[in-house]
Amino acid sequence: QDALVALHCCCLAVLVRSAPVPASTSAGMNQEFKQAVERSKTLVEKILRDIPTVHGATINTPGLTLDPSSQQANLQMMVKTLGIPAAPVLKQLSETFTLDLCVNRMSQGVNLHKDLLEAVSNKLTGLTDLTSDLRDLQTQIGKMQEQGHLSSAEQYQSPDLASHLNGDYEVQVADHLSLKQLLSFCHDLMRSLRQIATLQ
Q1: Is there a contact between 142 and 107 (Cβ–Cβ < 8 Å)?
Q2: Whole domain around residue 138: which residue ranges?
Q3: Which of 25, 58, 77, 118 shows the greatest Cβ crowding within 10 Å of its Cβ?
């Protein structure tokens, strides 16, 4: 009997050690939080569907396509010239990449691309619906932060794109780069939202 007790304790210890480390407390996973996650997923799906259409409607410069195989080498230099920041990095939830940090970076990323496209929209038509969807998405992510009692030390800094849009070419390239980066960010965002949706 002592041997069975010892074996039981050993098995419990193994289970505890092998259990995944929670990304954050689940106390905030209430119904309102879950609804905000689902609404965010719906909005991201819509944005992903709309980006190719918006790109086709607003870009008329040859060579600027969403096809990765046709990208021009000089566009990387234009990213620096225009001052377009890279999108925040989203990772799989873990002990070091917590729910707080993940949702905060979601918020930063959505804000970044909203601000970029709003700057471009002052020079170019056809971006209104997409920027409106990004504002709606930011609202839902804000609800996730509120309902989940989430906070992070990372702060958002708005880009200064408007001062670099001096000509039609700069406007076209800024539009293209912003939409292309938003497309990639939204794929990462969807993966994170799907993982968050599995939290209890």
Answers
A1: yes
A2: 31-60+69-198
A3: 58
Of 186, 96, 97, 178, the C-alpha closest to 141 is 186
Is residue 80 domain-resident? yes
With respect to residue 11, please indicate whether it lies within any of the assigned structural domains.
no
CATH number at residue 193: 1.20.1250.10
CB-facing half-sphere around the CA of 109: CA atoms within 13 A: 25
Contacts of residue 107, defined as CB under 8 A and 6 or more positions apart, other chains included, come to: 138, 141, 142, 145, 156
* Res 5: pLDDT: 42
- The residue whose two tokens read 């965002």 is 189
The count of domains in the chain is 1
Residue 21 lies in a domain: no
Three-class SS state of 126: coil
Q: Does the global pTM surpass 0.90?
A: no
Domain-located, residue 4: no
Q: What is the pLDDT of residue 70?
A: 67
